[in-house]
């Protein structure tokens, strides 16, 4: 560790500013600055530790990617109780998409902190996302999972993760289901009937059939609500087929 | 939450034993038993909460998989400083392979705790791994990342993750590199010379060429060590090509 610290300190041009600028991005003071220096060292610097291992941000990308995936997974798990495994996986991949990570890295101007022998203009677009991942990896090494979670919450989830938008702005599951049935040339029908039972309030039940087969049932305080509820259930039952359409 | 607890309590046949058997597997007492009951509820039980969301272990698999991936990533990051991103990703996928997870689930006899309407004999092999993932997901919800990490360390990393074995029992990088060159019909040569410089101890340097091009250099206290070091560097430089062979 000491070895790496010395190598990085001697090569890092902006030692003074780096700490201040980094603290602003992180929202806390880093404890082990060398993790962050590694996160901003490009492979063109050709740095190696005493064992000949490369010092640059590429391995930290691997770590940061893993932390992003698990923090976003736990957020989606709690926020989207109706989504099954496949659905959650798909939503997560939208959040941690290359495009999205590049956007995040750009907004924080991470590229300004990079030490590299290549002129900044020659980097491709992916460097922004790669630096963002590496930064998350460095936060994990410096402060552990909790800080990582907080940082991702502040920088990714709060400003970027709009569950409804991710779900493809699904406002009515009924219209979505009907659209799908029409496209796939399937017949469908909502069989609604009053079903108040022992309740004080009037209730309705609905049986939703597709191709003459009942695929979902629901019960609610209005016809419309019951139909929407049944459509949502059918949507999640068929989601792998339907979601190709969205 | 209370709602789910009631549904699960009324359906779980083995309430008494479940807590004891689970505590034995976990190595700690669960705080919110309903997370673990969900982790052992098969979809054939057809349980739903008040909103109509399914209660079974499938969503917890998604969460557990994410936690396993990040804990294993951070372990490998620290234990294999010479492996680059691609290499670490590959090693991780060996650890969290379907086969491996099934083995882990089987060893803990997780299937004995499942509540299902399907006879145990009719489950495929993957249920073992799925239950293991779901259990990890439940640990995360119950106690957070640290406990998850401890559990994975005790149950996966300590007994199962042998870095050298994962690396494909690479004992000599030199022999691996030579084998590859021969297979690919590439010429190679180790140009070794004494290079003690200002050191007190005798040192040797080596230039390793493949197809007449120098691909790696190294310096060490013996010819053999220098050759092995250079081979290792070349191995990691070419690892995507070479690893297809292993």
Output the keywords:
246 residues; mainly alpha; Double Stranded RNA Binding Domain; nuclease (chains A, B); tRNA processing (chains A, B); RNase_III (chains A, B); RNase_III_sf (chains A, B); mRNA processing (chains A, B)
Shape descriptor of chain A: elongated
What is the CATH architecture assignment of the largest domain in chain A?
A: Orthogonal Bundle
User: Beta-strand percentage of chain A?
Assistant: 5-15%
Structural domain count of chain A? 2
Low-confidence stretches of chain A: none
Instruction: Compute the separation of the termini of chain A in Å.
Output: 50 Å
Subunit structure (chains A, B): Homodimer.
Active site (chains A, B): 65, 133
InterPro entries (chains A, B): dsRBD_dom, RNase_III, RNase_III_dom, RNase_III_sf
Domain DRBM (chains A, B): 172-240
Structural description of this entry:
Two copies of one chain form a homodimer. By secondary structure, chain A is mainly alpha-helical. Chain A has two domains: 2-166, Ribonuclease III domain (Ribonuclease iii, N-terminal Endonuclease Domain, Chain A, Orthogonal Bundle), CATH 1.10.1520.10; 173-243, Double Stranded RNA Binding Domain, CATH 3.30.160. Helices cover 57% and strands 11% of the residues of chain A. The first copy, chain A, is built from twelve helices and five strands. Chain A has helices spanning 2-11, 15-26, 33-39, 58-79, 85-95, 98-107, 126-143, 145-160, 163-166, 173-183, 223-237, 239-243, and strands at 47-48, 54-55, 188-194, 204-210, 213-220. In chain A, the strands form two sheets. Chain A has a three-stranded antiparallel β-sheet with strand order 3-4-5, with helices on one face. Chain A has a two-stranded antiparallel sheet with strand order 1-2. In chain A, β1 (47-48) and β2 (54-55) form a beta hairpin. In chain A, α4 crosses α5, α4 (58-79) crosses α8 and α7 packs antiparallel against α8 (145-160). Chain A is elongated. The interface between A and B is medium-sized, with 34 and 34 residues.
């Amino acid at each position: 560790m000491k070895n790496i610290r010395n190598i990085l300190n001697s090569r890092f041009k902006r030692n003074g500013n780096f700490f201040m600028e980094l603290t602003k991005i992180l929202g806390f003071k880093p404890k082990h600055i060398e993790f962050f220096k590694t996160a901003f060292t490009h492979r063109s610097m050709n740095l190696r530790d005493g064992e000949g291992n490369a010092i640059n941000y590429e391995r930290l990308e691997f770590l940061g990617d893993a932390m992003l995936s698990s923090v976003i997974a736990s957020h989606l798990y709690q926020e989207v109780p109706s989504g099954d495994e496949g659905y959650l996986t798909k939503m997560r991949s939208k959040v941690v998409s290359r495009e999205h990570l590049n956007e995040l890295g750009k907004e924080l101007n991470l590229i300004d902190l990079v030490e590299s022998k290549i002129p900044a203009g020659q980097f491709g677009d992916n460097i922004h996302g790669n630096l963002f991942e590496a930064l998350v990896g460095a936060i994990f090494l410096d402060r552990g999972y909790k800080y990582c979670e907080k940082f991702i919450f502040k920088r990714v989830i709060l400003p970027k993760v709009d569950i409804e938008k991710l779900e493809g702005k699904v406002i009515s599951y009924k219209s979505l289901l009907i659209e799908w049935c029409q496209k796939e040339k399937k017949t469908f029908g909502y069989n609604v009937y009053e079903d108040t039972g022992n309740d004080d309030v009037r209730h309705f039940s609905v049986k939703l059939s597709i191709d003459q087969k009942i695929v979902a049932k629901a019960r609610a305080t209005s016809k419309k609500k019951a139909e929407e509820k049944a459509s949502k259930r059918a949507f999640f039952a068929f989601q792998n087929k339907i979601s190709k359409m969205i």
